[in-house]
Specification:
Number of helices: 10
Order of helices and strands: EHHEHHEEHHEHEEEHHH
Distance between the termini: 26 Å
Shape: globular
Number of strands: 8
Structural class: alpha/beta
């Protein structure tokens, strides 16, 4: 996807806009660690998608130990409409980058996910937007449904779609109104304290590893969303060793051809479920 002339499908992820929501950093760390690993799924995702990650949008608030505000006393997640380069520099920079990518005809901004933590609700869940176009509204439910199948601590029943006026300045609401119908914007929330597995009643306390596991499962869900499982199976097949010399690394022909060879081009986003995952479980 970095070849000259190829269309780049971009997934943009941000975190820690509210400095006290520390679980979001562990979820984001899980996403990053997985994507840069040599796991077969991660290798395919890097070939097919471009991930842009801003893991900490409120570094001064984190440094000061604030719960919600920046050094200047602003809730940054209410100022996406018109961020100031002086008062809200991180938001201004990220917004400029997103707008630049949106205006680039060779870049398709497919997803925006802002990671938060919730102090009263349990499990992981998402907030999405409401659109007049019913087809677009239905399509945006696909990703959280797939994530629910991959992550035992993610709750689709707690996922909701809204356009509350008080949330108008959030990244999810602002970018949901700015980007076109091929882009999907979500807030990913995760509980501060515990989750309940479907079919049980006992609360399981979250740990740092559990948060990072949710991050890994978020990354893994893009494989199902773009129906890339057959490509993983090819990557995972070892090359036969007919001689003693070192065999060259395997390269799937789809990963070397033009961008048009990839499945599901822009405007053809469909879910795929119940694929057999040849990789090790998460």
């Amino acid at each position: 996807n970095l070849r000259e002339g190829a269309e780049q499908k971009v997934v943009f992820i941000t975190g820690r806009v509210h400095p006290g929501e520390t679980p979001s950093s562990f979820v984001c760390q899980g996403i990053i660690d997985f994507l840069v690993s040599q796991h077969p799924i991660a290798r395919v995702l890097r070939e097919y998608l471009v991930f842009k990650i801003a893991p900490m949008l409120n570094p001064d608030g984190v440094y000061l130990g604030n719960y919600r505000c920046s050094l200047m006393g602003f809730d940054l997640n209410r100022h996406w409409l018109d961020p100031s380069p002086w008062v809200h520099p991180t938001l201004h920079g990220v917004k400029q980058l997103i707008v630049q990518m949106y205006n680039d005809p060779k870049t398709s901004l497919e997803f925006y996910i802002d990671i938060h933590a919730h102090s009263t609700m349990m499990n992981g869940f998402m907030y999405g937007n409401i659109f007049e176009d019913e087809e677009r509204f239905q399509r945006q439910a696909i990703f959280p449904k797939l994530l629910c199948q991959n992550a035992e601590d993610f709750s689709y029943s707690s996922t909701s779609f809204n356009r509350d006026a008080v949330k108008a300045g959030t990244g999810r609401r602002f970018l949901g109104g700015l980007l076109d119908h091929t882009s999907y914007c979500y807030t990913l929330e995760v509980s501060f304290y515990s989750y309940i597995i479907s079919g049980t009643t006992a609360a399981v306390p979250y740990t740092e590893e559990a948060y990072m596991k949710l991050g890994r499962n978020v990354a893994r869900t893009f494989l199902d969303y773009y129906r890339l499982n057959p490509m993983v199976e090819k990557v995972a097949i070892p090359m036969p060793r007919l001689r003693k010399e070192k065999s060259p690394p395997y390269k799937h022909p789809l990963l070397r051809g033009p961008a048009s060879n990839y499945p599901n081009g822009k405007g053809d986003k469909k879910s795929s479920v119940n694929h057999k995952d040849p990789s090790t479980p998460f």
